[in-house]
């Protein structure tokens, strides 16, 4: 038997993604972002979240998807994991659902252009609705990014 | 019972007690005859033992107990403090400290202390003839003295004495509750209630609190002032149900004096049966055990009063949260001020102004909350220096000045290790051996001064010894050998410059590698650490007369004065500490030399750097301007100029880090939150000057 978990659902383009609720601190509308020079391209800068400075990354950029303009629906999901606090800019975030870990299947190689290692799996919620579960620790893994950057640089 | 919630309290208090034990032991070592110090030590040890036992740390408790036994003998003049006793006790303290350390790190606080315990027991048994009978006396004291005796402190005694003089009845009452009684505390309470209706209980044994919590055997005794007759009271007490016996004895001045000198129960017996020789034999017995009792109840308030201020412990994270929330409030304040300005209603403006003043005061307090006296770091040094000096066979006085100087908690946490290093260095390499000192015509005992003081926005900590001083030839030779400088360079250096070479990486002048300093970790580590705290360290030295290390530290790591500047739509903060001046230059003043852009500054040319280019600022380019604002910055004695678009003004800013996720960015020291709630990056100009 799997566990019942609560998942925050957000969108990048047409795909729906999920992050476990207990990893999410808060969801904010787009706040003023201060650009930080000389860092990864997908790091949009830092925000002031009630007195704490938190870096925000564009999740589209992180996954190598084309970046998009912010809209009224754009949100910053503040996640806290592995002692890191980071904001994810997503196209929209407007749902919390309950699901059982049993319905999460291991991910195919590439889903919606995102490499499998960033994913925990795919949850089939209904016939036509798939939820892609993020593997937060891989998404936040900086070593890989640093290697990537040094290769490019 | 879940002890976890008490654990942190236990750890904090244990550390306090250990600290005070260490300090007092040092004091006692200076004045081995001063029994009052022993009393304080004994009390601390006793409390520690009690706490450890309650928390279930048996090893800690039993070791403390053994130490207490030794101290008990000393306290009662049955044992004279000697060097080996000090050493054993210090070893015991170290063991206690490491146990508490272990507990702090989540361990069980277990440690093999059998050898120390054996030593302590040997001291208690004592080859010393004076001590031979002592343990017996002490243990018998515990059994005989513990059950039922009262010790009056001076104040209580004088109250009773006065009452007698004023014609009140002073009674000594002993009440025993029947053995089959189920609710002893209730019966005892009824007796107290009864007594308090007709007079005043001056002192009871056990204490009222203990009685209420049923922490007594079957009987209790008390001193009582009333107008009632002794026999009348006796029958009243006996009327309370389940009271087995009540003994009420009226006292006069003479019997009171006798009783206060001896144990109460013995004296009471003496009053009833005058033939008993109460004076000599029971006296030490009675005074042994009640002393800590009365010490705890009687002296505890006095000790509190002596402490400089009453404090509570607050988690530093909470202070950070408070600070964050408070800066949020400041942002709202700015917004309110703007609104009030727009709306232009006097009442509103006045209210907002008042709020501004209050919040300014509040801000000062919040900032002060983080300040801690350097004593919290300094207090472990006397002990350390003592041990070092002893192991090196040197005589050293450590003089600590300005321990009350306050520093930000974050600095305090970081500065300990560098200071330990410098002090070890001073004791090991600085001060000469006793023989060398005598040969040099100095007093046998070397002095190491540890000073802290405020100056401007900085705190200075100086460590000065009156030892060898820096030997220019040796240091220069070593520096040349290790390739730090070339032989020619070494010759041209001033004495002070040679001294600074000690901070060069991998430098250690000690010819013999001792286990105290010179473990291959040089003073360069100290320098790096201090610089990472935003401070500097300098050596000044006179050969043959001594060496002084001065460490300059910022008052706080979290707040600095900065110049806010604008580049296009972006704002940045430059720490004032690295700004030499601000100015303007015209485009035609800019030269190109060897591929660098330079500008004339005073009598020289300094490089001109474009902040906009360094930071890839998208919407500003100074090349388009005829005249540009510049900030002249400094690193050491090198200067450079940064171009900016506009100065916003000088401000006190709170330094925040950028979050752990971002790797460190060259040129950016951190971030701050501006009055409008926006984040501005703090520039680290040092990285621009190579």
Question: How would you summarize what this structure contains?
Answer:
The complex is a heterodimer of chains A (153) and B (690). Chain A has helices spanning 59-62, 136-139, 142-152, and strands spanning 4-12, 15-20, 24-29, 43-49, 52-58, 75-81, 84-90, 92-100, 104-105, 110-111, 114-115, 119-126, 129-134.
Structural overview:
The complex is a heterodimer of chains A (153) and B (690). Chain A has one domain (4-152): Beta Barrel (OB fold (Dihydrolipoamide Acetyltransferase, E2P)). In chain A, the strands form 3 sheets. Chain A has a 6-stranded mixed beta sheet with strand order 8-1-2-13-12-9. Chain A is 12% helix and 51% strand. Chain A contains 3 helices and 13 strands. Chain B has a 6-stranded mixed beta sheet. Chain B is built from 26 helices and 22 strands. Chain B folds into 5 domains: 4-132, Up-down Bundle (Four Helix Bundle (Hemerythrin (Met), subunit A)), CATH 1.20.120.160; 146-282, Histidine kinase CheA-like, P2 response regulator-binding domain (Alpha-Beta Plaits, 2-Layer Sandwich), CATH 3.30.70; 316-370; 375-554, Heat Shock Protein 90, CATH 3.30.565.10; 559-688, SH3 Domains (SH3 type barrels, Roll), CATH 2.30.30. Chain B is α+β, with helices and mostly antiparallel strands. In chain B, 48% of the residues lie in helices and 22% in strands. Mean pLDDT of chain B is 77; it is low at 128-148, 264-308 and 511-520. Chains A and B meet through strand 4, strand 5 and strand 7 of A and helix 16, strand 21 and strand 22 of B.
């Amino acid at each position: 038997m799997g566990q019942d978990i609560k998942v925050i659902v957000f969108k990048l383009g047409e795909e729906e993604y999920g992050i476990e609720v207990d990893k999410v601190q808060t969801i904010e509308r787009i706040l003023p972002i201060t650009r930080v020079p000389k860092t990864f391209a997908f790091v949009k800068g830092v925000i002031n979240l009630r007195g704490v400075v938190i870096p925000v990354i564009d999740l589209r950029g992180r996954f190598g998807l084309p970046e998009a303009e912010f809209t009224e629906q754009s949100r910053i999901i503040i996640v806290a994991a592995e002692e890191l606090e980071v904001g994810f800019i997503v196209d929209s975030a407007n749902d919390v659902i309950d699901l059982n870990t049993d319905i999460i299947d291991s991910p195919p190689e590439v889903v919606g252009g995102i490499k499998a290692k960033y994913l925990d799996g795919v949850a089939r919620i209904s016939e036509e609705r798939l939820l892609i579960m993020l593997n937060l620790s891989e998404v936040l893994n900086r070593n890989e990014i640093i290697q990537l950057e040094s290769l490019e640089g | 019972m879940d002890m976890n919630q008490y654990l942190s309290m236990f750890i904090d208090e244990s550390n306090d007690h250990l600290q005070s034990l260490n300090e007092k032991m040092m004091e006692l070592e200076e004045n081995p005859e001063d029994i009052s110090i022993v009393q304080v030590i004994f009390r601390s040890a006793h409390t520690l033992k009690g706490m450890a036992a309650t928390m279930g740390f048996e090893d800690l408790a039993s070791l403390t107990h053994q130490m207490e036994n030794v101290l008990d003998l000393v306290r009662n003049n049955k044992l004279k403090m000697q060097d080996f006793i000090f050493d054993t006790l210090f070893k015991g303290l170290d063991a206690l400290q490491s146990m508490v350390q272990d507990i702090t790190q989540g361990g069980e606080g277990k440690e093999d202390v059998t050898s120390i315990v054996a030593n302590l027991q040997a001291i208690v048994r004592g080859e010393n003839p004076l001590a031979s009978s002592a343990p017996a006396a002490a243990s018998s004291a515990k059994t005989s003295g513990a059950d039922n005796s009262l010790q009056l402190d001076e104040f209580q005694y004088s109250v009773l004495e006065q009452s007698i003089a004023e014609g009140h009845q002073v009674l000594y009452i002993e009440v025993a509750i029947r053995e089959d009684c189920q609710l002893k505390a209730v019966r005892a309470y009824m007796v107290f209630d009864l007594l308090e209706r007709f007079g005043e209980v001056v002192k009871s044994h056990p204490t009222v609190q203990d009685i209420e919590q049923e922490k007594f055997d079957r009987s209790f005794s008390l001193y009582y002032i009333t107008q009632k007759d002794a026999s009348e009271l006796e029958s009243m007490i006996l009327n309370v149900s389940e009271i087995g016996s009540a003994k009420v004895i009226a006292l006069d001045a003479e019997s009171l004096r006798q009783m206060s000198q001896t144990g109460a129960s013995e004296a009471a017996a003496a009053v009833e049966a005058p033939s008993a020789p109460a004076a000599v034999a029971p006296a030490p017995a009675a005074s042994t055990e009640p002393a800590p009792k009365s010490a705890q109840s009687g002296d505890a308030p006095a000790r509190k009063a002596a402490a400089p201020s009453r404090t509570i412990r607050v988690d530093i994270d909470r202070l950070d949260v408070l600070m964050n929330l408070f800066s949020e409030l400041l942002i709202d304040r700015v917004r309110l001020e703007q609104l009030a300005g727009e709306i232009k209603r006097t009442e509103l403006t006045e209210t907002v102004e008042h709020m501004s003043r209050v919040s300014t005061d509040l801000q000062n307090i919040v900032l002060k909350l983080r300040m801690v006296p350097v004593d919290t770091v300094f207090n472990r040094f006397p002990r350390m220096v003592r041990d070092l000096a002893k192991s090196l066979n040197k005589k050293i006085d450590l003089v600590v000045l300005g321990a009350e100087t306050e520093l930000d908690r974050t600095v305090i946490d970081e500065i300990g290790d560098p200071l330990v290093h410098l002090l070890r260095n001073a004791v090991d390499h600085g001060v000469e051996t006793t023989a060398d000192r005598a040969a040099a015509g100095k007093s046998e005992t070397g002095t190491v001064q540890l000073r802290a003081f405020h100056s401007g926005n900085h705190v200075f900590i100086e460590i000065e010894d009156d030892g060898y001083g820096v030997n220019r030839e040796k240091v220069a030779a070593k520096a040349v050998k290790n390739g730090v400088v070339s032989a020619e360079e070494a010759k041209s250096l001033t004495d002070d410059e040679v001294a600074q070479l000690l901070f060069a990486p991998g430098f250690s002048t000690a010819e013999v590698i001792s286990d105290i300093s010179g473990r291959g970790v040089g003073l360069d580590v100290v320098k790096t650490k201090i610089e990472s705290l935003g401070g500097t360290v300098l050596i000044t030295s006179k050969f043959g007369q001594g060496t002084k290390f001065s460490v300059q530290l910022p008052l706080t790591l979290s707040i600095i004065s900065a110049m806010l500047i604008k580049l296009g739509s972006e704002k940045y903060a430059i720490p004032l500490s690295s700004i030499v001046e601000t100015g303007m230059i015209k485009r035609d003043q800019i030269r190109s030399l060897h591929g660098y852009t330079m500008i004339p500054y005073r009598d020289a040319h300094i490089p001109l750097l474009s902040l906009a280019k360094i930071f890839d600022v998208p919407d500003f380019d100074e090349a388009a301007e005829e005249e540009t604002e510049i900030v002249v910055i400094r690193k050491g004695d090198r200067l450079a100029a940064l171009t900016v678009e506009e100065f916003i003004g000088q401000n006190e800013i709170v330094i925040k880090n950028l979050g752990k996720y971002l790797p460190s960015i060259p040129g950016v020291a951190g971030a701050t939150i501006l009055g409008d709630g926006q984040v501005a990056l703090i520039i680290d100009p040092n990285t621009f000057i190579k």
